[in-house]
Amino acid sequence: MKIKPSLWLSTAIAVTILATGCAATFDGPRHTSGPLLIQAQGSFAAGGTELRNSGNYDNNKPAAAGQSFHGDHLYAFYQIPQNARPLPIVMLHGAFQSARSWESTSDGREGFQTLFLRRGFPVYLVDQPRRGRAGNSTVAVSLDSTPNDQLFFDQFRIGKWPNYFDNVQFDRKPETLDQFFRSVTPNTGPYDAGVISDAMSALLTKVGPATLFTHSQGGGPGWLTAIKNANVKAIVAFEPGSGFIFPPGELPPVVPSAAGTLSPEAVSSTDFQKLTRIPIIIYYGDNFPDQPTTERGQDNWRVRLAMARLWVDAINRHGGHARLVHLPDIGIHGNTHFPMSDLNNVEIADQVSRFLAEKRLD
Amino acid sequence: MKIKPSLWLSTAIAVTILATGCAATFDGPRHTSGPLLIQAQGSFAAGGTELRNSGNYDNNKPAAAGQSFHGDHLYAFYQIPQNARPLPIVMLHGAFQSARSWESTSDGREGFQTLFLRRGFPVYLVDQPRRGRAGNSTVAVSLDSTPNDQLFFDQFRIGKWPNYFDNVQFDRKPETLDQFFRSVTPNTGPYDAGVISDAMSALLTKVGPATLFTHSQGGGPGWLTAIKNANVKAIVAFEPGSGFIFPPGELPPVVPSAAGTLSPEAVSSTDFQKLTRIPIIIYYGDNFPDQPTTERGQDNWRVRLAMARLWVDAINRHGGHARLVHLPDIGIHGNTHFPMSDLNNVEIADQVSRFLAEKRLD
Residues of the signal sequence (chains A, B) (predicted)? Predict the structure, then answer.
């Protein structure tokens, strides 16, 4: 599609005018179509370690001796829009995913990367250590082709395979599901929340003060990153699934579900207290059962939502500022485990924008 | 950095004016700084296969039975600039690399992704099947942490470890080398030029007519992609390292080097002939030895350059349009195995732009 100069110039002028106003309340997206104005973009590695083998390197007969290996870093791709808002957003994906989670949706619409660029935020997308383009792991692993598509369909609450939930915010074209399945990418080393949050902390040191978005398994490393680095100024967590950390003596009981048990994790009081200093909001989607059920895919989330409520209570009991939004409670229905790429992802982005405005994070 | 509206609007106007002219000769980059005007961006998977396990899927006791696995696709990230030129550029990385190869340079400057966006081309960056964000492989593999940094330093002709070549176009800050080493990412399945070129062909069907840039190991799959899909309208190959294909009866002898032997590969006459229909240009950098040497890192490239010359001769003998540019021969010195991210990468991009203009690919 080509847009005539006169049209896109007036769009550009409109963007500029909007950008000069700085309201404390959410004033709607700056421009929802037309060209993105990108001041700078690029990628780099952050954090990680270096393994060094003893001995002397023989240039002409290379072996392990004297050689090094760089691994356990993360990879970040950033885009800074023209007239950027001061606080960037760093987005961390969940299990079996990469930064791909925040790019185009499976049905080809704009994901949170581009939606929040349009709203004026610098956006940093992460491939966590041992995933995607940050594949070099200091710990070995074997990969096989374990078939998990149907498990993912259930567990990510698209429906109960092979049926979609009636109200699901997921496009039903077969090619959309194909794209969704192909967004999956494996761990290239053991999952390690400590390694991930170390690299994330190195990233935050590079980026400076920022808001952190996390998804699913990224929730746990997200809390740890905020503990390790004061540059995390707020967290927006989409469907955190594990890594709920509590101070000593306050761990809730282990919870059984049809998908296995969910255990809280212990952290020092000092570290826990650090999470009370920043605003935190947690979003969960739809089709959670109210009562225990044998439906594995759904029951898995019943207990995670329950644990998240206890976690928010604990944060606030200690003086913190956490909020949990179960989207159906505010009239938003049908969201899967990926609210940021569901059919109503602009509505979800609007919710997030309101939170950022309210907390003056924009 | 903030730019005042008046300044960036005049930049935008200047860009528009340049974009309306469509010269057949290279007229210099459109704008080398200031904001990028991106009409659309996003990502998707292309190609790949699906494994299906027999049996019935039990939603509440998931096992392999009845489940599927999607793998062997590629991942592509695209950006379409405002007032785009008609032929996009698709960029395919080499061994141990991902689309990262074309993004920021290791010292943080703009790589070919952004340089060619600035020159008005839609740009598609690929993570090939079984690499990076396209990690799902239908064939199992074991990953370890084999230390290869020093081998890469030599083999990618940065120097002879630990010394840089005197004239090398590679920034010598330690953090640059650290970033370079961290651009390495492993195969998550066996390397397979057939699998890669199948997925690339699926991508080209989606993209339409395009120019293909390849790097190093990507050279071989690049030729195969052009054989499989007539949408490849030209190839710009940076330091192709293997996969030189010849028609029956014309295979040159296997060549020994200090880094092992290099073998030509056979392809049918019909397939070979398809490569004679498109313009092809191949670039090699500096610090190649003229004569056989025991220096492994350099000798490795002596034979690849020699084989590439024979390959270009074969293409042209059959009526094709291939050219090999050994950069020192045209007065450009010090390039490593990564000319697209070397210190002089804008000069290299200018060379490529001249080729694209000459062949009316812009």
Answer: 1-24
